[in-house]
Amino acid sequence: VAKLVKIKKFELENESIKKLKKDEVLVKVSSSAICGSDLHYFRHGALGSQKPNFPLSLGHETCGVIVDKNNTNFKNYQNIVIDPLNVSKCEHKEKNIIGKCGFKKNLCPHQQYLGSSPTPGSFREYIPIHKDQITVLNNQIDIKYGSMVEPTGIAQFSIERANINFKKENKILILGSGAIGLLISSISKIHAGVEVTIIDCLQYRLISAKKNFKSDFIINSNLKNPKENLFNKFDVVFDCVTNDDSIDLSIQALKKSGKLVVVGIPTSDFLKINPHKIRIKEIDIINVRRSKIDFQNTVNLIIKNKIPINKLITHSFSLKNIQKAFNIASKYSDKIIRGIIT
Prior knowledge:
Elements lengths: L1 E5 L2 E4 L11 E10 L2 H9 L16 E8 L10 E4 L2 E2 L25 E2 L12 E5 L3 E3 L12 H14 L8 E5 L3 H10 L6 E6 L2 H10 L4 E4 L13 E6 L4 H10 E9 L12 H7 L2 E4 L7 H11 L7 E5 L4 H10 L6 E4 L1
Helix pairs in contact: 2-3, 2-7
């Protein structure tokens, strides 16, 4: 098991595999990807003021192989992808609808989430998982890319949350060309007539955005002083960065009655927002927290629309090299987009 023992420092330790509970299966982890939220903990030890105690067990973008199906209807040695969200304690009978708690799956107060303290994460060799969190891949998606189903689900849910009328709201701006931004671009372009612009200061990611993820226009620039005039041009902005500069640029770039979809996780508790600019344009601010979409739905989306999740994974590291992996990912060096731990 890899544990973050302090800011920017991982260590490996051994843990015994506990006896499986009634509805659990044991999964041998094939890969876990390094998400932006994992990098927040790595760099700052927290998400804003939410500071869990070290050591931290991180990792939630995960695929693997069932090695002990236990008392479930799964089969041993099936390739599977793991939904990090576990709402079994609330008895959400159907995965996409409101449960006994009265909230959507992703807002359930009884939820457990992989790699979100105190729930252990998936940067480890083996992990017990509740049966409701498992989607069988079979040969639908190569297990090498299975960890990319989770971020695809986040992008899919972000678009769903925006409730876009693509025939009228067809000019979209994406701030940040990390995995989520790239996936939002690709999924948005499923709809005919949609025009996607993406802005980032990392040119190599923008090249991938245009080449692999169907972005129409790319802008290599910081967000504080964009190189091009973006004022009042867009119907929807997906902010995959979320800081003072990105919020301000989003408000400037949106047309009247535009939608600002907040996807990125801020590193601070408070951001500066000019309420007058929001009020004058009557901008809707839409927040995204995790996803409530069933993973089979996301798998189907990827297959049907040929979403190029294989183009997201640029680096692969063994568990013993997780420190190197996070060092590279944290500095955006070596042209990394998504690194996976195998």
